[in-house]
Write a structure and sequence with these properties.
binds magnesium ion; binds adenosine-5'-diphosphate; 11 strands; 9 helices; alpha/beta; six-stranded mixed beta sheet; about 35% helix
Length: about 260
């Protein structure tokens, strides 16, 4: 099937006029944007802007009050998380999930069985192969047999990436997965996301770290109170001092790394 064209590339994810309300709080307010195949889009905004809510809606964990989500040319607005994962969309969780006494490798195998890009049930042997490949990709092979709860904070982030990668997705939603890493770990994380793109995987990168957004994103979408307030190439959004000081906490006058 031919997909509609957006910005000269093929649209993979298309979010149109999505609204979500929690009690009286409007978490998403008619939000629209798209991610092309193989593209890295940075999604930025202050705490409470609605970024994680968007991840929930797109991945099927949360139901939108109105609006539409299309993925790979299909309307997925009303599909549940397993069905959407099976179409090739994977998300990380901002708060680390409990490991239930599993080893690092078992966590990655679970990730591989949750979704498979061809929509068929993944066999355990294939899942194990995918999991081992994903662990090698993020550099966690030496920790494979270790109980996952013994991993340090940075290794847990790597496992979170391996877990979603093991499902062989076409799009990964990374929800602040690089936050809290030290300088060396951050550089490593940035290299990893670049390697995802080289594999043709599109990424929606939710991140407060300017260095990560500047080094990775092809395009940035800025949201505030659930609504899109700016969108464009990284260079033009990062050149906007006002947006910078408001959304990345960079004091006026300070240079961007
Ligand atoms: P972000 O990820 O950008 O920090 P969130 O999507 O987590 O923002 O939250 C957006 C808004 O929705 C916030 O005001 C938050 O308090 C509210 N919110 C998020 N999830 C829930 C929920 N499950 N129940 C009630 N309010 C929520
Ligand atoms: Mg969040």
């Amino acid at each position: 099937m031919r997909l509609p064209s957006y910005g000269g590339e093929r649209v993979l994810l298309e979010v149109t006029d999505v609204c979500v309300t929690f009690g009286g709080v409007r978490a998403l307010d008619a939000l629209s944007f798209a991610v092309d195949e193989g593209e890295i889009v940075g999604l930025v905004g202050p705490n409470g802007a609605g970024k994680s809510t968007l991840v929930g809606v797109v991945s099927g964990a949360l139901r939108a009050d109105s609006g539409r989500v299309r993925f790979g040319g299909r309307d997925v607005t009303r599909l549940g998380p397993h069905r959407i994962a099976a179409l090739g969309l994977a998300r990380t969780f901002q708060t680390v999930q409990p490991f239930l006494g599993l080893t690092t490798r078992e966590c990655a195998v679970l990730g591989a069985t949750f979704g498979s890009a061809d929509g068929r049930r993944t066999r355990l042997r294939e899942a194990a192969l995918s999991a081992d490949e994903a662990l090698a990709f993020v550099g966690l092979t030496p920790q494979a047999a270790m109980p996952a709860e013994q991993l340090n904070a940075a290794q847990r982030r790597l496992l979170e990436i391996a877990r979603v990668l093991a499902a062989r997705p076409r799009l990964i939603l990374l929800d602040e997965v690089l936050s809290g890493l030290n300088t060396a770990e951050l550089e490593r994380g940035i290299e990893l996301v670049r390697a995802l793109r080289r594999r043709g995987i599109a990424v929606l990168l939710i991140e407060h770290i300017v260095r990560a957004i500047a080094g990775l994103a092809d395009r940035v979408v800025v949201i505030d109170r659930g609504a899109k307030i700016a969108e464009g190439p990284v260079s033009s959004v990062l050149a906007d001092r006002r947006a910078l000081s408001a959304y990345f906490g960079v004091p006026r006058g300070q240079s961007v790394p």
